[in-house]
Amino acid sequence: MHNGGKHMNEVWQVGDVIVTRVVELEVTGGSRFILPDATREAVRDYRWLHPHFMDDAGNLVMSIHALVVDTGERRIVVDTCIGNDKERAIPAWSNLQTSFLADLETAGYPPSTIDTVLCTHLHVDHVGWNTRLVDGEWVPTFPHARYLVGKVEWDYWSGRDADDPVLADSVRPVLDAGLVEFVSTDHSLCDEVRLEATPGHTPGHVSVRIASGGEEALITGDCIHHPCQMTRTDWCSSADYDQAQGRDTREALLARLADSDVLVIGTHFATPTAGHVRRREGGGYWLDVSA
Q1: How many C-beta neighbours within 10 Å does residue 143 have?
Q2: Which has the least CB within 10 A, 21, 85, 95, 254?
């Protein structure tokens, strides 16, 4: 079930860098297929998840959104959601008609002003707005941007089914337009923004580190789908390429982030989306969104 109403864009300041969230969908209770272990009964006792990340009944709340990283000199879109007009295997994601592009413009970021698009990985809900439908053709949504794709990630996906519809309508058109740049998993985009390898969900999955003015933030990508995986690092996504590696990545990342000042911005975390990782009495971690 989709939550009704317009979503407010959230904005965070990290030193001199501004990060803006633009929501495509926020969903309650639709995450069971992604995190099969996170049943209502299993999550209900983790009260810190309520009310932001879990409703009264124990249904998880998740978001699909893009994050614009504005350094003042660079305008970088991290992950591009599902997209409109695309036929998808998941019915709730198929042939969407959302106001995402208008919302992006309202936030101050018309597509023509974006200079970089970064995909943490190439799953369906992270590449959709790479392209849009114009006169029956898929054309780049961000015509003046370089689209950064991990070389390790592309090597994995390009070796798969050439007829994959997600690659066909959301990746190959920007490749054919000459806009794609293949990068390493530790690529530095600029002084303030660099990639960090967080493999497991996919072979070349990356998170995004932001550092400016002595402050730091991390955009997770899908190495942590939902904050419940902070308390239960053993709960793996059904979409993980390598669940054991994904868990190792998650545990190592959380141990480094715990009790630090790094703002963690979840790629699928529902409003308020960002917080600080804290060690939890009784084991594991939790996301403190009080600051």
Answers
A1: 12
A2: 95
